[in-house]
Amino acid sequence: MIGRVAGRIDYRGTDHVLIDVRGVGYLVYCSERTLSALPAVGGMAALYTDLLVREDLLQLFGFPTLVEKEWHRLLMSVQGVGAKASLAILGALGPDGVGRAIAIGDWNSVTAAKGIGAKTAQRVVNELKDKAPLVMAMGAAPAPMPAAPDTGEVIETASVPTPPVPPSPGAQAEALSALTNLGYTPGEAAGAVAQVAGETPEATTAELIRAALRRLAPKG
């Protein structure tokens, strides 16, 4: 399976790009957010990819980071969410926004994606709430687009596995880890950290932990 492509952009469509990798063109479908971040035709680009295999179709979907690719795979596991819907959600919210919406149960934010109704948005939040903290801990913020070599390359995951994403050293990831070590469930920790981070994005790890603990403290 193809896990990453890197080369020259030969063509840009409304929902995909054609990347020339040593003379072979790979058609890669992307979200609007990813497409807007890619260079113009003739520029070099690199994308992590997920291959969708159907009886009559093979499609590559591209992502700037492994974290976003993982969100795509999780979103696709939700009933009623196909590849197109997943890209719409990621394009509307970005990986950080998806994690925050799921962690705090804000399904209404998910409906900002084109073609996503209330019922589907609620399923996304309900089915992924227990899985979201792990992905959020992979990286609280998107990493820069991986650099593309001038020669172009395509990596087959069968022979060269996609490297795992290490835990992010960011404040949100550290706060999540600290709270779970204190005995809070991943869902509780992720929800509290996401709420605090949304209100004070510049907060340090210590500030996030203190504010999240106040939210998690029993009321009354």
TrEMBL record:
Pfam families according to UniProt: HHH_5 (PF14520), RuvA_C (PF07499), RuvA_N (PF01330)
Subcellular location: Cytoplasm
Top-rank taxon, per record: Bacteria
Subunit text: Homotetramer. Forms an RuvA(8)-RuvB(12)-Holliday junction (HJ) complex. HJ DNA is sandwiched between 2 RuvA tetramers; dsDNA enters through RuvA and exits via RuvB. An RuvB hexamer assembles on each DNA strand where it exits the tetramer. Each RuvB hexamer is contacted by two RuvA subunits (via domain III) on 2 adjacent RuvB subunits; this complex drives branch migration. In the full resolvosome a probable DNA-RuvA(4)-RuvB(12)-RuvC(2) complex forms which resolves the HJ.
Role, per record: The RuvA-RuvB-RuvC complex processes Holliday junction (HJ) DNA during genetic recombination and DNA repair, while the RuvA-RuvB complex plays an important role in the rescue of blocked DNA replication forks via replication fork reversal (RFR). RuvA specifically binds to HJ cruciform DNA, conferring on it an open structure. The RuvB hexamer acts as an ATP-dependent pump, pulling dsDNA into and through the RuvAB complex. HJ branch migration allows RuvC to scan DNA until it finds its consensus sequence, where it cleaves and resolves the cruciform DNA.
Transmembrane region(s): none
Region (Domain I): 1-64
InterPro entries on file: DNA_helicase_Holl-junc_RuvA_I (IPR013849), Hlx-hairpin-Hlx_DNA-bd_motif (IPR003583), NA-bd_OB-fold (IPR012340), RuvA (IPR000085), RuvA_2-like (IPR010994), RuvA_C (IPR011114), RuvA_C_sf (IPR036267)
Domain Helix-hairpin-helix DNA-binding motif class: 73-92, 108-127
Any one cellular-component term (Gene Ontology): Holliday junction resolvase complex
Keywords: ATP-binding, Cytoplasm, DNA damage, DNA recombination, DNA repair, DNA-binding, Helicase, Hydrolase, Nucleotide-binding
Domain remarks: Has three domains with a flexible linker between the domains II and III and assumes an 'L' shape. Domain III is highly mobile and contacts RuvB.
Molecular function (Gene Ontology), one example: four-way junction helicase activity
One Gene Ontology biological process: DNA repair
Protein name per Swiss-Prot or TrEMBL: Holliday junction branch migration complex subunit RuvA
Parts forming coiled coils: none
Main location: cytoplasm
Organism: Roseovarius mucosus
